[in-house]
Amino acid sequence: MLGNDLNFYDQDALLFRLHDALKDSDKEVVFVVGSPITAPHKDIPGVADVGAVVELIRGEFAKKTGQLEKLDSQLATSTNPYQTAFDFLAGRAGQGAANRIIKRAVSNALVTSGENNWSESICSLQDNQLQSFDNDINAWHFTPAVQALGRLIAQNPDRFGKLLITSNFDPLLEVSIRRADGMAWRTSLAVDGSINHSSANGCQVIHIHGYWYGTDTLHTNNQLMRSRPTLQNDLLVRLQDRIVVVMAYGGWPDIFMSALGGVVGNDNLFPEILWTCYGEQPQLNAYLLSQLRPGIERNRVTFYSGIDCNIFLPALTHLWESNRSNLDVAPPEAPQSLPPLQNSRRSLFQLAPLECDRPPNIEVWVGRENELRALETSNARVVIICGIGGEGKSALASHYINTLDEREGRYHFWDWRDCKEQSDRIRTQFIEIIVRFSVGKISSDDLTEADDEELVEILLNHIEDADAILVFDNVDSYVDLENRTFIGAIDILINRISTMKCSSRIILTCRPDVQYASSSVITFPMKGISEEETLELFSKRAPGHTIPDSDIRDAHALTKGHAFWLDLIAVQVNKVPGTTLRKLLDDMRRGREEVPDVLSSIWDKLALREQTLLRFMAEAVRPETEITIQRFSASQLNYKNFTRALRSLISLNLIVVKPEMDAPDLYDLHPLVRQFVRTKFEPSERSGFISVVINQYKIIIGSIKSMLGINLPFAMLERWSQKVELEVSAGLYSEAFETLVEIENALIGGGHVQEYVRVGRLLFESIDWETAATEYDKFDKVVGMMVGAFEQLGDRESADSMILRYEGTIPQKTARYIKFCDIKSSSYWLRGEFELATEWARTGVSLKKESHVDTNFDCDHTLALAERDAGRPAIALDFFRKNWTIEDIIAGIEGVPEDGPMYGNVGRCLQFMQRNEDALICYKRSMRILETDTSYHSKSNRAYARRWVGQILRDLGDLQAAEAFFMDAIRLLGNSAPLRVREIYKEVEGFRKESAPLMSDIEASRIVGNWMSGRD
Description:
This protein is α/β, with parallel strands linked by helices. Strands 1-8-7-6-2-3-5-4 form an 8-stranded parallel β-sheet. The protein has a 5-stranded parallel β-sheet with strand order 10-11-14-9-15, covered by helices on one side. A 3-stranded antiparallel β-sheet has the order 16-18-17. Helix content is about 55%, strand content about 10%.
């Protein structure tokens, strides 16, 4: 049977089959897709296709002329160049080389930093780092087919969203589903195994040939055709009695085709196989036809030709979306209220385990039954756990969330944030929770402009029906000690959540006693454990020792029931040979203060290798894996001694283990242990250990440094801020300034403004301001960045304080005074005080012009922004147009640069000058450039451009187009910028009829897209 003997139907028939005809059927649809669906499409990057992968393999032998000639000779006669190339590679470089090729192929679909060594950087990352990209919906390019299939599954989960099968190695399908507010989870199998051993809510995406990291990938004929009976049987069961749509898939021999042959060849099964072909007159290969022949003869296989997945899937999705209400968004009930936000409940199974901090592992649990019972039975939405360090605040919270599965309750998920008793961190934590609970739908840079109240509203929107527990551990820095309440964003969060219906709970731990009057807020003061609980603790910690009860009661009295000290003492008695409780108590009393110095007694009994390891770990900024800690200590401990020391310190309870499923354990020190080790040694004695840790951080950073131009996950970016902390601790202030300059765009542009401020404060509080300008090259630049960051956070007091302090370092009007003028001007401009901004910028410009000083400091750009927004756009236009005439820019003559910001600024000036038609020309060019912009502010800039175009179209009377641009701006901003969304809604409500439904986002996007492409 030949392909041209078959009856092929067209796209119209397939659209009818998968839309209209399904209304009379209750069958589920399973898509099976291959590499063309994620391959590059027109100007949209994608995963390297078959031909590009073959070229990647050829590149492996580019410098081996003889080998390359042999490969090319085999490719010239091959019927399957892809498998031939991988067979050739496997014989000469092994499976590891094949896996690297796939990582490079998948990396082509990532939004890159533009670095030439991008693919090599991706290949050098660890699996947990690659996993961060899987969970970032903003890190990938999406073809029209991938976008459409993601929306189709997310919006119709019962019909299309149960199962998706792919031979691809990339995560784009899962990411696209989550991007469309759906749920998806992955099963990847490179060997035989069942696809039924795990389950979760949402669409199961099965990667039958392996995944781009964490497993081997299958390519050669031997790999693809080896027997996998369990998987084959599972696929057979899952495909029976379903509509199976095979698209962008070649049908070469593999496990899926074997399973499909079994399905269509079984007369007792009744599948419907819809096999699509790209070409108008396809010729099907003999193997495919042999597998499908029984189904063809039973009329269970139908063929379709001329099916381009990038055309068909958007068309099919549009049909299903047309069934939905056009009321995708609704206006606010009142001008003052926020627009209703989408229900953002997410099941956290799909989140990476490392997307939040980890709670400590609790090996022995004693007492605290009253507190646990209160946690379980109370309806309080906020729980505050107070008490001195070591009394078990974190342990209680950890035990509670880690035993959720053992209790029948309303909480099912958790998120843990270690605030480290540091200030300037809570905003960062809020943002990361929002990013996590939105499944990446909202990115951190989307939240840059949100103030604390807006940030809390967005956070509550994402947790109000999530049945989750959010733990903020060690929030001491946010306590108002006089009023015994929290301050800032935490106070706002507590007051808001305590007055609303919310299925989630907030738990906070801190040392000071904090009290709120609301019945929805309870406080647990953690005191020492009782004598009876102390006896129980020793029986569990030292079960093989006979210890007099009187000694244990003495220990309880000496420590005042301090949980952590008692636990350490009990462990010492059990683990350290020759140690008795009486000897320990006598030692702690001898020459000590009123409070027993338990750690000093323990320190003296540690081996040198154990002391050395503790000193390295005390300087680390965050919990680390065993491999990283071993590298810290490698200069002083060989691997054997390191392993012994680590195991010994864990058994002594001096190292806290923070485990996680499917990820390496992390190791940390209890805060009291870290504090003891750091204060035991002078700064000069610590510096050598800090330098070693810094060098390891440099190595970690080196592998991801080239990626700073993209939206890196915060867990990666945080490595730079941790490096700054260490450099400040070691007195390496010049290096700290260099690091802050290196990371400023990524942290501030990426929305992590508070993290930049936090480490910046540490640096500026440590240096000598009088000599800083001459000692540190980047001092002036970082001052300007800090002031701008304070303004973004709305902290005008800190901004003014830093400006005043900076002014004190400039006794005369030197070149640095020009920088001071620029900082002052920028500060006023950010506050909307444009006349003052203009005044200061003019002063700086005049000083530089009149003095002819040779300096890079200038105020020209800030002056232009201030003049424009102060109502003098014509003056600003002379700066923004650079060396081009307005006529040349509007005409788009050859040579005018593709500079999106230039076109945008020129357009804004022309808009203010009532030259609306010319402004639209500039905006259109600016928007086209911005659509492919991968910088951090690209989404925000695109939203601004749409809003400005909407304003012009409204003024010109084209109200339908104006509404489209306003609504598309709202779509881009989503839930991430409620203030701007509210302002845009007000503009829309100002000209549209109240009774008319708002334009759908689909229609708005269509109108905007046509306008940008010139089809309006």
